[in-house]
Amino acid sequence: MIKSLPTPAVLGATAALGVLGTFLLDLALLAPAALAIGVAAACVAAVLLTAPADGESRALRRGLVAPTSLVLAVVVGLLTAVIADLWLIEPVAYALGALAGSLTGPLLYRRMATTLALAFVAVAVAGALAFALTALVLVGTGVDPGYTFGRMLSYGSEPNSVVTVINSATTYYLSAVAVAIGFKMKLFNIGVDGQYRLAALLAAAAGAAWALPPVLHQIAIILVAVAVGGFWAGIAGYLKVARGVSEVISTIMLNAIATGITAYLLSTDRLAVNIGSNNIGTAPIPESGWIPGIPTEFMGAGRPIFGLTLLAVAVGVGYWALLNRTRFGFDLRATGQSASAAEASGVNVRRMVVASMVISGMVAGLVGMPQLLGDSHYYALDFPVGLGFTGIAIALLGRNHPVGIAFAALFWAWLNQSSQILDIDGIPKEIAVVTQATIVLTVVVVYELVHRWGRRYEQQQVGRELGRVKVATS
Amino acid sequence: MSSTRSDGGAAPPAVELRGITKRFPGVVANHDINITVAPGTVHAIVGENGAGKSTLMKTLYGMHRPDEGEILIGGQPVQLHTPSDAIRHGIGMVHQHFMLADNLTVLENVVLGAERLHGIGARARRRVTELSDQYGLGVRPDRLMEDLGVGDRQRVEILKVLYRGARTIILDEPTAVLVPQEVDELFGNLRELKREGLTVIFISHKLDEVLSVADTITVIRRGTTVATVDPAGTTARELATLMVGGQLPVPELRESTVTSDTALRLEGLRVEAADGRAVVDGVSLDIHRGEIVGIAGVEGNGQAELIEAIMGMRPVAAGRITLDGTPITGWRTRAVREAGIGYVPEDRHRHGVLLESPLWENRILGHQTRRPNARGPWIDRAGARADTERIVAEFDVRTPGIDVNADALSGGNQQKLIVGREMSGDPKVVLAAHPTRGVDVGAQAAIWDHLRAARARGLAVLLVSADLDELIGMSDTLHVILRGRLVAQADPATVTSEELGSAMTGAALDASSAAAAAGGAPEPGQPGASTEDEAAR
């Protein structure tokens, strides 16, 4: 086995191979196929050029990490190419895609930890299981699963569907991050639902009542929502540390109370006005408080993407940075892992409980904002409900990881959107719910198995490593 | 390697382990273990911490299955899938940590989970009394468990096992929680069991005890059986050599480095339990720079509470704590740590490490607010990682890297990381609770070395330990704690573990111990000079 070359050299070689291969194959094959083969060739080259790290089993590295990075690289390459294709001519777009893919693959193979590769495989296995189960249900009800999935795929990739998917994924994402912050502390914030509804109602009312210049207006509305969400969740945090009330119970109760309060406030005697013939809601927010959408004409869609999608991205980055880069995040994760060890290390655990509940609630307050500021501009009886519960499922599916949650939210939204077409064909669209439910279950189970296996693998790895050192030194 | 005692001859061995190999997710596994236990004997299995004794006993008790090899009971090969299989084959186990319900009586504890055998009424009571008399355990069925001492609790555990019909009893480190006097009583019980034809497998790493009670000794080193010897023909020194493949480290301090500056002063410290009872009562002591102050006491006499109170993890009901002249009574844990107190906790899994976090994050734990781990509100990853590398190198933490999770390391290596971490950042005082508990001999010697070196640099150490040799060897000044009060002071240069053991049980409480409690701290500059240990005799 040759020795490992330095990473830049390998990357250079594989990138050249991938791009050149794609370019040449493009002459004979369809562009996507050419790209896939080119990127795959680059990945294989990288595998051959890389010696496995000391002490790691080569079989595992090659059998697990290599295929995972290959698949991910091809996906990255294809996505880059398809997106670039919207602006550029095809050969250039696909060359770019090949470059991205052939850089991603080898880099992943070299850098990706075995456990992360395992996580990807776990998700893939869980997804396959979920779809297999759904297919089984379809066959049981006498519907052709191939046809069904084909319809969903084609409808789900229409430009308008893509926009809808991104928009609902945005709200799902915010909701799931709110839940995930609690999960990281081993707190189960079931109350995201009540928190965002109350926050959206009061923010909408405030936004309609105040006349402020643009920018300030939006900021003021969002701050109201954040404050209300944080306050509402903070009640549960306070009850937990002061009175020992389980946050599960108190947030469920607070949901019910929030429903009552919104119903009370959403009356024409109080905050609401008549909207249309059959609906009441808060007075519309003046245009100075709206947030413009991201135009989507370039991809041929008829409506814009919520401007606040960018806020969701920022929340994701902030969530990641808070957890992994700040002292506060360290204390939070430590408390979640072992409250007793955190206490002994000087963390004020009670304060952390309240703080994390409040932060979770603040993010929950944002959940209604993309819809409120980007689309409806008022809070009415038909404002979306239940997003808080969807968030729990998505946080579970995304394993509380900012990137994992993003994929989970997109996937969830895509299932919801693409199944809409099925009604036309007389196939019950609730089939998507079956897939959603089974994938949450399978991901949780498969992930737990992989997690255990990964821990054992690491322990064995350490044992082997130390055993070798012992032999070497004795 | 294996041998049977030559007395019986005809009778098949009570238990025979042939070529047991257990590949275990962890650092230590068993490989090719061969042990033959003759019926009606006390068979000791010795080995240092982490040698694989517990793994082996869990195999024998059906808690997990061996990857290779076979287990024979009474000459018949058996498959033990669960502990209840083992019990059915007459094998019972007394764990190191008792599994008893405090709010139940002795009888209720014994029948709990074995109601089918003799019911829960008069028949069960008769059986308990019968067994207690037959084996001379002296257990009274109607006493409440919470009223019993450690020795009595252990006898209840043995009775529980007998009640379930065990003919072979595994005792896992039974003397770890006992004072020397209780150990003698236990050995009396074991001889009684042996006389009645039962077989005892006795796991220990205390060689003197093993030599005095066992009929046969099997030594385990690094997961395999290295020798089976007759205690009559061997010495503790030879056993130690077999056990560690070299010399056992001895805890000792050389010249005194004690200064007259008081680093930590406790005055009349009182800590209360939730019900208002004092668990630490009027404790006053001074720890000087360069001094190690040892606290001896049977576990549960307020040592843990004392340390937690100093750390700010438990409210102080009365009294004052002063660090370098600064009163720190009632400060929060973080402030106490930042003021310069390091803490090696008694239970490292509960209080010392995050098992599922990498080593470098564990380096940060407890030092979140300080360099090199943090810069303002941000975690300084590069700084923390570099410093973790330093600790791993300086404290000889055996690990392939600083990115592995803490639970991939053996207990000894986790402990070295904790000790290294707590000695970082120039602490003024380190509170070390059982710093070498459950660590192997090599790590033990390393931790002692580091304590000695830090002491020479002027560190003040409060040392709590259940290992009396460690306490006597490593302390400049030694206090005995009983029911939350410092009842005696001993000179580590002259006191023996037996004397210390008596003082710990309160057997020798008299006027001078009252004086010790009232007199408080020793004269600065003359630690350990007191002769109040006469009280202990």
From TrEMBL, chain A:
Residue intervals passing through the bilayer: 7-25, 31-51, 63-86, 92-109, 116-141, 161-183, 195-213, 219-241, 248-266, 305-323, 352-372, 378-396, 403-419, 431-450
Q: Which superkingdom is the protein from?
A: Bacteria
A GO cellular component annotated for this chain's UniProt record is: plasma membrane
Q: What is its main location?
A: membrane
> Could you confirm whether the keyword Transmembrane helix appears in this record?
yes
Keyword Ligase tagged: no
Q: Where in the cell is it found?
A: Cell membrane
**UniProt entry keywords in alphabetical sequence:** Cell membrane, Membrane, Transmembrane, Transmembrane helix
Query: How does the entry describe its membrane topology?
Result: Multi-pass membrane protein
GO MF, one example: transmembrane transporter activity
PANTHER family named among the record's database cross-references: ABC TRANSPORTER, PERMEASE PROTEIN, GUANOSINE ABC TRANSPORTER PERMEASE PROTEIN NUPP
Please state what the protein is called: ABC transporter permease
What is the species listed in this Swiss-Prot or TrEMBL entry? Answer: Marinitenerispora sediminis
UniProtKB/TrEMBL annotation, chain B:
* Cell membrane as UniProt keyword: yes
SMART domains in the record, alphabetically?
AAA
Query: For the ABC transporter domain, which residue ranges apply?
Result: 15-247, 264-508
**Low complexity bias: start-end ranges:** 511-530
Subcellular compartments: Cell membrane
Query: Main location per UniProt?
Result: membrane
Q: How does it sit in the membrane?
A: Peripheral membrane protein
Key words, A-Z: ATP-binding, Cell membrane, Membrane, Nucleotide-binding, Repeat, Translocase, Transport
Q: Name one GO molecular function term.
A: ATP hydrolysis activity
Please give the residue ranges the record annotates as the region Disordered.
Answer: 511-537
Q: Name one GO cellular component term.
A: plasma membrane
Quote the PANTHER family the UniProt record gives.
CARBOHYDRATE TRANSPORT ATP-BINDING PROTEIN MG119-RELATED, GALACTOFURANOSE TRANSPORTER ATP-BINDING PROTEIN YTFR
What this protein is called in its record is Heme ABC transporter ATP-binding protein
Organism (species): Marinitenerispora sediminis
